[in-house]
What does this fold into?
Amino acid sequence: ETTTTSTKATRIGSLFSGIGGLDLAVEAVFGGEVAWHSEVDPYACHVLQQWWPGVPNLGDIQAVRHFPEASVLCGGFPCQDISSAGTRTGLRGRRSGLWSEFARAVREVGPKVVVVENVGQLRARGLDQVLAELAQAGLDAEWTSVRAANVGAPHRRERVFILAYADRRIIRE
It folds into this structure.
């Protein structure tokens, strides 16, 4: 039996990229390559350039008029308005309200898979809206919460991870 490898790797688009931690995980899980980022923090942009030289950074998501192609989108949109340490205004807040830009990217790109990360308080301050908007974009979704202590870190910091997909078979392969 002959196995062939596709020369076209899975294209990953990264929103609110930070320093690329989620991007590295998504590359490893889906066997793809980050094709583009959208990040504004100067330090994070420097780190992204070091890890992914030559990969374009679209900059401020609010200024992006056309998102490049990607079969996987990932990102952790701002949590300041969702977090218990923040304003607690949820997705109505100025920063966490940028979820609407993430949702716009999902609708425009039409990825097969979306991976979203945010703070544990998202469950009480917007998870229902996030899941509804993913469903409106034609994606089914599953989510879970993971505490940092569950993976060996010396603190409880809880994160919500959402995996949305156009076809369940994609995540079973």
The CA atoms of residues 142 and 163 lie 5 Å apart. The first strand starts at residue 11 and ends at 15. Residues 99-109 form the longest helix (11 residues). The chain is about 25% helix and 20% strand.
